[in-house]
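[stage:ingest] chain + small molecule (zinc ion)
[stage:ingest] validated
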Amino acid sequence: MSHDTVITGARVVSASGTTHCDIGITDGKIATLGSSLKGTETIEAGGLIALPGGIDSHVHISQPSGPGIEMADDFTSGTRSAACGGNTTILPFCLPEEGQTLREAVAAYRARADGNCMTDVSFHLIVRETDPVTLGQDLPALIQAGYTSFKVFMTYAGLALSDRQILEVMAVAKEQGAMVMVHAENEDAIEFLRDRAERAGETGPFHHATTRPVPVEREATHRAISLAEIAGVPLTIVHVSNGEATEEIMRARQRGLTVFAETCPQYITLTASDLDRDGFDGAKYVCSPPPRTVEEWPKIWAGIEQGTFDLFSSDHCPFRFNDPAGKDAPGARKTFRNIPNGIPGVETRLPILFSEGVVKGRISLERFAAITATNHARLYGLYPRKGAIMVGADADIALWDPALRKPIRQADLHHGSDYTPWEGFEVTGWPVRTILRGNTVMLDGAPIGSPSGTHLEREAPDVLL
Ligand code: URP
Ligand code: ZN
Ligand code: ZN
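[stage:predict] done
[stage:export] C-alpha cells:
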C-alpha cells in the first residue's frame, strides 16, 4: 500500500511507549505504523523524535478584556505561534461579553476563528452568569453540541461566582456529562489584601503577587474540591502554582475523589521576584495565580513527575507590554490593580518542558507525551482522534530535534505580543517540524502554508465514559 506521506527514521513516542518505525499517512490520518513503508512524499526524520502534536488546553485568544484593553493575539497570530511551538490543537476559552449570551459568544468566537487557524481549535466555555436561560437552555445545548468543558472563576470582579452559583453550574455538568474547570483563588481575600496594600502605598507590579499569596489559592482549591464533592462531579483545577494547593489535590484523590490538575511553565521557571523587576518591567510577569518562589518549583516538579498533574498547559494570555491597550493600560503604573493579567506562552510551553523535564532527566518522553497531548485529548473529549500517534488517529505530529540548543528570543517567536517572559532562557530540544493532519504547518521554526485548522466538536470527557 502506498501512502501520501511516510515519515522514516524517527523515534516514535506515545504516552505508553517508544518505538522506531515508519509512520504512513493517508488522507490526513495515520494509516500504518511499520517498516519500509512507501509514500508519495518521504520525510527523512533520522535523529529526530516524533511526538504527538501538542494539545494546549488552556489558551486565551481574542478574549474581551475590558474597555480599551486588547489581547495581543487573534486566531491568526495565536495559532501560528502555537504551530511554531509544536502544537496541532489548542483549546481557547470562550468568554461572553457582559450582556452577551453563551450562544452568541460561541458564534462570535467561531466567526473570528473560522478560516484563520493554523492549528485545530475547540472552545471551552466560561460560565459567568447563572440565570435560568444560561443554565437551563444555553449551557445544556452547547454541551450537547460538543462544547463539553467549561471554566468557572472564583476570582476577578464580574466573573467570580459564589459557592451557590458554582454548585448550580456543577449540577448542569453532572446532568450533561461535562468537565468543570476551576480557577481557584479567593476573591474576597484578594480584595481585602489589595485594599490594604494600596492604602500602604504598595502599588507596584510586585504587589500583584503579595496580594495573591499561597493561602488564597490553597483555600479556594480546597473549597472547589469540596463543592465538586457535594455536587458529585469530577473537576479540573487549572494553573496550580504551589505545593500547598497540590497537597489539597493529592488529599482529595486519597479520599477517592476524581480531581484532575493542570500546571504551567511559569510555575517551574518564574518567581514573584520577576514582578519586582526595574521600573514597570515587572508588569510583563503579572498573571494569576502569580509565579511563586524557587522553593515551590520542586513541589510542582514532584507533581509533574509523580502524576498529580495530568496536564501541562501554557495559560497563554498575551498582552503587549509597550501598549496602553496592554500592560501599560491607563492607571497600571499607579496601581497593579489595573495591569491586565496574563502572559504569552503558547509557543514556549513545549520547549521549556522538554528542556527542563526530558533533557534534564526529570520526566520520560512518554510522560512528556501524556501531559502535553494525550491527557488533554482524553480529558476534553478528543481522544482517540487526537493526542496519540496511532493508527486511525489524525496525523498530528511534531518532529523534535532533541539536541538543538538555543535561547528563547522574542525575535524568533510568532505571537502578537512584543515580549516573552522567557527572553534569554536557554533551551535544549526544539520542535523542527509540525504536521497537522498530514500537512506541514511549521518547518525549522517558520510557519508554512495557509491556515488549514478546523473547529473540533468534542465528546464527553473520558473520565465520564
Ligand atoms: O493571569 C491569567 N492567568 N490570565 C488569564 C485568565 C485566567 O485566569 O486564566
Ligand atoms: Zn484562570
Ligand atoms: Zn487562563
